[in-house]
Design brief:
The chain is of the alpha+beta class and 238 residues long. 20% of the residues lie in helices and 32% in strands. The N terminus is likely disordered.
């Protein structure tokens, strides 16, 4: 089992080759090695979604379902404020790219691979989206709320999930609050199940969240939309 410092060093290595636009020669060599192996796949049966925040737990995935993808979502949680309102902002949905974290997993033992993905999730909330677009982690899909307000996850060939909430728990104490760990806090962890219109996917878990919480009050002023930067892991089952 990897020591903590080895996991951190591995995470920093992956961050350097994934997100560096002006890579050093040694990093370029590592990047070419990574890209030359991009056909290698991970055995997802060895991975288990984190369910506990330390004091409460989400329900386990339904028996018989298999893990289809682990992604890192990076985008915004979206809210609105009415003119003059001092109420809490009203949640209206989210929009995020879903980065395919499974492409990193074949190169590490499962425990270390998951630790690296956890660290990456905490880091990417501080990366500008334009930098993420240049990374070597492919975008597997998109997360939006459709015109009816239904959480929607489009993973292309892997399936489409129209979702409804099954359960939620607060993010763990000490979760990253937002970019550079500044913000109102991390949004809840969620378990979502399929709704009509889904194809190939049955459940998704949003865990290891970073950022995304709205300010406690609209604070008066003009009507407006508030977009709060966030990152999270999304584990898909089908």
């Amino acid at each position: 089992m990897f020591a903590h410092h080895s996991i951190l060093a591995t995470a920093i290595f992956f961050i350097s080759i994934i997100f560096s636009v002006e890579a050093l020669p040694t990093e370029s060599s590592a990047l070419r090695l990574l890209e030359s192996r991009n056909k290698k796949t991970a055995d997802l049966s060895k991975y288990q979604v984190p369910l506990s925040n330390g004091t409460a737990s989400l329900p386990a995935p339904t028996a018989g379902l298999t893990l289809k993808a682990i992604t890192i979502g990076r985008g915004t949680q979206n809210y609105t404020c009415a003119a003059g309102s001092t109420d809490p902002p009203k949640a209206i949905g989210a929009k995020a790219d879903l980065l395919d974290a499974t492409t990193l997993l074949p190169y590490l033992p499962p425990s270390a691979g998951l630790s690296v993905v956890n660290i990456l999730t905490k880091y990417v909330v501080s990366f500008d989206v334009s930098i993420l677009a240049k990374s070597t982690i492919p975008v597997l899909g998109k997360h939006i709320f459709d015109e009816f307000g239904v959480p929607t996850f489009d993973l292309g060939d892997k399936g489409l999930l129209k979702a409804k909430k099954l359960a939620n728990i607060a993010a763990p104490k000490g979760a990253i609050k937002g970019s550079k760990n500044k913000g109102e806090g991390a949004v809840d962890w969620l378990a979502l199940t399929d709704a009509p219109g889904s194809v190939g996917l049955k459940e998704v878990y949003r865990v290891e969240t970073a950022g995304g919480k709205a300010p406690p009050s609209c604070g008066g002023g003009e009507a407006r939309e508030i977009n709060v930067q966030y990152a999270a892991q999304y584990w898909f089952y089908g």
